[in-house]
Amino acid sequence: MKKLGYIPPMTKGLTDDRRYVIPFVEMLEEVGVESVWTVEHVIMATSYEPLYPYSDDGRAPTGPDTLMPDPLEWHAFAAARTEKINLGTAVVIASQHSAAILAKRVATLDALSGGRVRLGVGIGWQKEEYEAIGVPYRDRGRRLDETIEAMRVLWRDDVATYHGRHVRFENVHMDARPANGRSVPILIGGSSEHAARRAGRLGDGWYPYVISPDDFAKGVETIGRAAAEAGRDASRIELTIWPASYDFTKGFDLDFVRSYTDAGADRVITSNVESQTTDIGKQRDFIRRYQDEILAKL
Would residue 98 be called left, alpha or beta, if left means φ above 0 and alpha means ψ between -120 and 50 degrees? Predict the structure, then answer.
């Protein structure tokens, strides 16, 4: 059976309320959800250049009640109330972060959670967010590559050195290590050919968004080629898909979901959006229905 991930509500008054989050994550674990996925935007500009790549008008689907807490802090809280569920980010905009600081935060969370972090990373799209954080928007793809490489060096080496254009350190030691002592799975977010190639070159996984079954299959082929060029085994790159992000009317269309898993998807994501409720009991019922009607038949 394929793995099942779930995206929680991103709603003010709930997503940041321990009285809601505790029973919510306990419910996800009880019902057998494999992973829970959080989203990062440090800020959202009230007026931004419409560069959001997943809508025709370049506007992101956020509203006045949208809340996106810090994903790693939220997962730290969730980890303390659970034992098995994996903790995924979809995605941390890693090119906006210090590689060393992000590496230490992730390693700490992974160690304390018993190796449950699945670090999805991406480059983002909002110029105003980069400006507010104080990081250049230009060359963010190269900055992401270097951040991934540098974090792995810090996690792996007792005395770490890395020389990049944007990230540099020499003969340093990071005392916090991931649970396995080596690394944390890093998934590359994004639906573009560049993202698929990055997944093949550098990723432990790929997590595209708003992508058709045909384009997903093409992306999988791109990953295979890029992995071969880099001397990597493409079969070890885990593929995650949220089918309903492409068409919210087809969440329970078995053939539609199967078109992604036939192309290689290992993990299927569903979300609070499809459940159309923030009630925890009703979300439990929705997840069980999805497990019975979709997941069990893939």
Answer: beta
